[in-house]
């Protein structure tokens, strides 16, 4: 059984119990409720670090923090 983590409330749950899912930045996120799903959609960047895309951990990125934002 696959367990997924809700990036909004940090609950973990079996994938089959996830109430909603959302794809963002090449990752799939799962939510325990529509409330959490809505919160994610309103501000996905706040929660997206729960699944770090490979691009953000690429060597060299950390050496140029001033280039971000
Ligand atoms: Zn939740």
TrEMBL record:
Record-annotated TRASH domain positions: 6-44
InterPro entries: Ferritin-like_SF, RNR-like, TRASH_dom, YHS_dom
Origin: domain of life: Bacteria
Record GO terms (molecular function): oxidoreductase activity
Signal peptide residues on this chain, from the entry's feature table: none
Protein name according to UniProt: TRASH domain-containing protein
């Amino acid at each position: 059984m696959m367990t997924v983590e809700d990036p909004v409330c940090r609950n973990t749950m079996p994938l089959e119990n996830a109430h909603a899912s959302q794809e963002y930045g090449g990752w799939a996120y799962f939510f325990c409720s529509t409330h959490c799903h809505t919160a994610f959609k309103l501000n996905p960047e706040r929660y997206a670090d729960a699944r770090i895309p490979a691009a953000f951990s690429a060597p060299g990125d950390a050496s140029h923090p001033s280039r971000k934002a």
